[in-house]
Amino acid sequence: MGHLGFLRGSVFASVVGLSGLMAATAGAAETTGSMDAAQTSAPLPMVYDTSRGGGVYGPTMSVDAGFDFYKHGGRPEMFAAMRNRGITAARIVDTGWLDGNAHKELADEVRAAGLAPVLCMFPPTHHGLYKLHPEWRQLMLGGSDGKYDWRTYLCPSRPEVRAVLAEETVAALKAGGYAGLQIAEPWFEQWGGPEMDDGSPRPGYACVCEVCRTRFAAASGGVDAREMLTKKDSPRYWRKPANAALYKLWQDTRVDAVTSMTVEIATEVRRALPGTVVNVMVLSDARVEPGKIREYMAIDFERLIKEVQPEILCVQDSWQDWTQKGLKPDFIRDYGKLYVERFRRVKPDLWLMSHADIGSLAASKREWPWIQQFAKESLAAGFNCPSFYEWSVTVINVVGEGK
Ligand SMILES: [Zn+2]
Asked: What span, in angstroms and rounded, lies between the C-alpha atoms of 180 and 36?
């Protein structure tokens, strides 16, 4: 999902419901006799390496289980329709609301349809813990207590936050008996860095909580991060050339927090549940400002690959790409050029998954032929398989097939 995702609920609540889902799944089953329909509903190419068994290594579709759309039954038919279209894994999104029973029910339905169930969490977002522990929340430059877009943010600089996120992840994996875990969007806000274009502080930039500031003060000999980031007349102001090393140190402390959180979750999962396939989803900067993701969002690709050793790295499409109405499915080739060789230099057997947001906004809603073409382009770009966010949109696209 990613930024702007907060609009999803409002976009789809009005157009989807039980009748939409049933019409869609029924439509998918009726298409076999129609040449035209067969072309638009044909399965994805078998793009995964069957030596790894498909499943979590194959084409993957997100199911955002918190959406009302999924609370009206019809899910077994929906998962079967996915399988018929060449999807091999369903990624169940949990932002910290689902209990153990919900995980079990969803994962059982996924397995019954012949798909691999993958749990997808967005640490340090966990809506339940955010509510329970206000003292763990991040602090943004504009004063917001850890809220940006649809996400709520706990601070990963706190050891107790990292520990409890790892614990919650293990509990959810156990409850569902999931085959894989996707650690999605581990980052600090916000794209663009500490300042807006007009030079004013960027309100959503994080984190400047007590723990982050204390940690940075200890590393920098007493510099206050907030002053460095916002006070233009301070001798420590981050844009002054003399402070380049200081600002770099600040970036490093952010990267440390994000990376160590991700490592801690993966390590605890592997200790408690050996054999769980770990997938880390990072955000692309390829077609926006290549190389800036580390500074802006504390995502250090190389460190994450090296230190987490994920079996799968998923490269998420940037919102600057997926929000384009006319985006062509071959945009992924630009990602391949920049990342594929680079990432495999760090881990030669790394399984690379592409990602397309196919409908968080009306402008990014994609039809099935687009989705098929994206799967092909992903392979041509050097990725091993594609993934998509998210299914309820795809269902809307196939309503009326076979007519
Ligand atoms: Zn913090």
From this structure: 36
Q: Is the pTM of this model over 0.85?
A: yes
Q: SS3 helix, strand, coil % of the chain, rounded to 5?
A: 50, 15, 35
Q: How far is the CA of 147 from the centre of ligand 1 (A)?
A: 13
**In the chain, what's the furthest Cα-to-Cα distance?**
73
Instruction: Give the Å distance between the CA of 97 and the centre of ligand 1.
Output: 23
Distance 95 CA to ligand 1 centre (A): 20
Q: How far is the CA of 123 from the centre of ligand 1 (A)?
A: 14
Q: How far is the CA of 168 from the centre of ligand 1 (A)?
A: 20
| pLDDT tens-digit map of 182-200 | 999 999 999 999 999 999 9
Q: Is 83 buried (19+), middle (13-18) or exposed (0-12) by CB count in 10 A?
A: middle
Domain boundaries of the chain, sorted by first residue: 5-200+253-398
Is domain 5-200+253-398 given the CATH code 3.40.30.10 in the classification? Answer: no
Q: Which of 306, 332, 307 is nearest to 321 (CA)?
A: 332
Cα 271 from Cα 274, distance rounded (Å): 6
Helix (H, G, I), strand (E, B) or coil at 175: helix
* Alpha carbon of 214 to ligand 1 centroid (Å): 9
Give the whole-number percent of the chain exceeding pLDDT 90.
77
Ligand 1 centroid vs 212 CA: distance in angstroms? 4
Q: Tell me the CA–centroid distance for residue 85 and ligand 1, in Å.
A: 43
Considering only 1-10, 77-86, 279-288, which range has the smallest mean pLDDT? 1-10
* Alpha-carbon separation of residue 353 from 309, 339, 343, 386 (angstroms): 15, 12, 12, 5
User: For 316-341, b where at least 16 C-beta lie within 10 A, e where not — what string?
Assistant: bbbbebbbeeebebebbbebbebbbe
The rounded Å distance from CA 239 to ligand 1 centre is 22
* pLDDT tens-digit series, residues 230-246: 999 999 999 999 999 99
